[in-house]
Write a structure and sequence with these properties.
Largest sheet: 5 strands, mixed
Number of strands: 5
CATH architecture of the domain at 2-36 and 44-112 and 162-208: 2-Layer Sandwich
Distance between the termini: 19 Å
CATH topology of the domain at 2-36 and 44-112 and 162-208: Nucleotidyltransferase, domain 5
CATH superfamily of the domain at 2-36 and 44-112 and 162-208: Ribonuclease H-like superfamily/Ribonuclease H
Strand content: 15-25%
């Protein structure tokens, strides 16, 4: 995984995108019941603690490791395996002939039957994929994961080790989103929440995006 990060810039020159992908679920559209009183001389900003709930969204986002830009975001109310596969398909469609490496965590939707069938179709693999729970590539999570990790595929996945989701660079960007938009935000509807997040992504890509300086090499930190 760390090797993917180190090689991302060189891979992009070869028309291979290295993408850190994950979902941020349960983003709440909260509206304060009274307006915030702005900071003044000798007075801190005062924010109303009561709020109205207008619903939630799930943001599935991609971070292009080589550029630091967030590309092809998806905002839905669910995060099923179909949702993730459709998100990957829309992302790949932005550069249909390129190679794609997706860095992901170990959520079961990231190793789903739907995703395996999509990758097989896009890579021109016509062999029998088997039956989920019974045989072949589709039999189990380990067999599906092995297929999705295959380095010979134009579209492949690299999975972080278990319990290390923090190694996925998109988590860094999610923390930026929380601090800049969500934590102090005031949203009058789910649509308002969606619009403000998408507007921030546009602003971030234009003014702030740059590759994260990744210093972790993959070696245990106590060595």
């Amino acid at each position: 995984m760390c090797q993917c990060y180190r090689e991302a810039a060189d891979q992009l020159e070869l028309a291979i995108h290295t993408i850190s992908v994950d979902e941020k679920t349960g983003i709440q559209a909260l509206e304060r019941i009274a307006a915030t009183k702005l900071m003044r001389v000798k007075q801190e900003e005062r924010r109303e603690f009561e709020y109205k709930r207008h619903g939630t969204l799930c943001l599935t986002a991609n971070l292009e490791v080589a550029t630091g830009k967030v590309i092809s975001p998806t905002m839905e109310t669910t995060r099923t395996e179909k949702d993730l596969a459709e998100h990957i398909a829309r992302t790949v469609a932005t550069d249909a002939d390129a190679g794609w490496i997706f860095v992901a965590d170990n959520l079961t939707t990231h190793v789903s039957e739907t995703l395996v069938r999509y990758v097989a179709k896009q890579c021109g693999i016509e062999e029998d994929l088997g039956v989920k729970g019974k045989r072949g590539i589709l039999k189990s999570v380990p067999t599906r994961r092995k297929f999705l990790e295959d380095k010979t595929h134009r579209i492949r996945f690299v999975y972080v080790p278990k319990h290390t989701s923090w190694l996925n660079q998109i988590e860094i960007w999610f923390s930026i989103l929380v601090r800049r938009v969500i934590k102090r935000g005031n949203f009058t509807s789910v649509k308002d929440l969606r619009d403000k997040i998408l507007a921030f992504i546009d602003y971030f890509n234009e003014a702030l995006a740059k590759p994260f300086k990744w210093t972790y090499t993959g070696r245990p930190l106590n060595v």
